[in-house]
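Notes from the pairing session

We agreed to fold both candidates in a single pass and log them together. This is the raw record for the first candidate, unedited. Please don't reformat it; downstream parsing expects exactly this layout.

Candidate A
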Amino acid sequence: MVEVKNVTKRYGGKTVLDHVSLSVVPRSVTAFVGPNGAGKSTLLSVICRLVAKDGGEVLVEGREIGQYDSFELARKLSILKQTNQLPIRLKVRELVQFGRFPYSQGRLTKEDYRYADEAIRYTGLEELKEKYLDELSGGQRQRAFIAMVLAQDTPYVFLDEPLNNLDMKHAAHIMKLIRRLAGELGKTVVLVLHDINFAACYADRIVALKEGKVIREGPTDEMVRTDVLRQIYDMDIPVAEIGGRKICVYF
């Protein structure tokens, strides 16, 4: 269980997170949605201790994140940030193996290689594992980074806008993969999404942020309603049901 209690974060004189509280449901997919500047990515970074909070608590399995040492926390939480710039040229296989660093500290064991190989297989990258990252398409590269996170073998996976710069085909492929992480592997996945329809189709729960506050949260079916969407986005968004899924018609 991950619990956020009354968390605040300020940059200069601006409050980016304003007494945010929420609980993440285990073994499910939770989507953070909301307009630009709502605090979604900052909240994700605070939960993963990449950004220091100014107040409140973040509890991971009942323990405040500040009480974990770095390697211990990295065996609980993994995060994929929006931008992943690497100072060296890596092959897919090498990148995925880097996910084992919290366990191996660079000295890979047979078990580490096994976890990395399983992550490569699970993400369908066997034929690309000897390719360099700069030889891949955007969707392939994103799958490689998700494989690295998967190799880290944490119960909690945090993804910050994993669909950035992907076309429709690759975005859908990534979301299906994320859905499998929860449904097949029992991971607890939290991700930031800009497209409400991907949240509507693939998330179990939606947390809506606006101006640094959680304004609504709940099961996806209860959140994808015109009255709720109006509160979040300040616009009227009709909702249609297509193939048993709710689709927001905002174009």
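Candidate B (folded immediately after A)
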Amino acid sequence: MPPSIWFASLLLVASCTVTSSPGPRNPPPTYDSNPSRPPPPPVNDHPDRPPPDRPRPGWDSTGWTLLGEKTVDGKTDQEQVDFSQKMGAPPKRITVLVLDSDLEMHDMRVVYTSGNEFKPTGRHYFRENSRTRVIELSSAEILRAVQFKYSNLPGGGRARVQVWMQ
């Protein structure tokens, strides 16, 4: 038998050989490919009570300064948060944060010292602990105030509205 056929048959026999090890096989370890995944839901030890809520991620206010806060006292309110030069440099961006209840924002205006106004478009409905998108302000003008008209949603409590600047 030529050596090339002998070598090929040896390889064929070697590849068909099956070895087995005695005892149970341990599965390979699993690695968490997404360590930032949220924790599993809490265990409900009491079936007669609803399960506890998952912790909500909070808004990180790092780098932001609180410009002012107002509380909705009735059905509809109209408030103004003033900006003072004593607060430092004029803000480049603002955002509105709603706490403690759901809220409907009817109108919002950014008023500059020159008398010009900027109105973000649309009506906004906010869930408790939610905020608006970041609103970029004109850097050529100095901010005087942020005015807004808002109301509680039916069944809601007293909502707090905060205006943050950066």
